[in-house]
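Quick review question:
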């Protein structure tokens, strides 16, 4: 079965198409195109969907930001961005479920391979066998498809 991994984002979510352990496609899809993208790539009966759901983790708390001029503003912006992603994840899960898709919300992956793959495309390619271009959102989506619980 084909697994779709989704890393939600406000403007466009990372999408990965994984067949077994092979990544077939990585791309970014805007919220308005999610259902059309899924329908064009197999529909509810043919797809196993895993979505990173940041609602499954604790809220953000102030961080130590030694180089920031205005630490409170930076922490506020981080919290706002996380809140936007949580809202998009909630709406994507609700929309896909209403359209008949089986959706598995997954905790965001942390540490180890995830952290390194997010920043290092060459390492991601070495780990997964992917040879094309990728960005952080698409790499996260692929890791959710491959390793998300």
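Suggested answer, residue by residue:
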């Amino acid at each position: 079965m084909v697994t779709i991994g989704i890393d939600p984002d406000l403007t466009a979510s990372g999408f990965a198409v994984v067949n077994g352990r092979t990544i077939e496609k990585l791309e970014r899809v805007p919220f308005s195109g999610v259902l059309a993208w899924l329908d064009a790539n197999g529909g509810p009966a043919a797809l196993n969907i895993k979505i990173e759901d940041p609602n499954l983790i604790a809220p953000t708390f102030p961080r130590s930001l030694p180089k920031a001029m205005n630490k409170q503003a930076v922490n506020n912006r981080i919290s706002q961005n996380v809140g936007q992603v949580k809202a998009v994840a909630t709406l994507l899960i609700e929309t896909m479920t209403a359209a008949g898709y089986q959706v598995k919300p997954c905790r965001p992956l942390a540490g180890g391979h995830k952290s390194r793959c997010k920043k290092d495309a060459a390492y991601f390619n070495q780990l997964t066998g992917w040879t094309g271009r990728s960005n952080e959102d698409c790499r996260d989506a692929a890791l959710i498809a491959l390793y998300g619980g």
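Why it works: The CA atoms of residues 92 and 149 lie 18 Å apart. Helices lie at 34-40, 71-98, 112-119, 121-128, 136-147.
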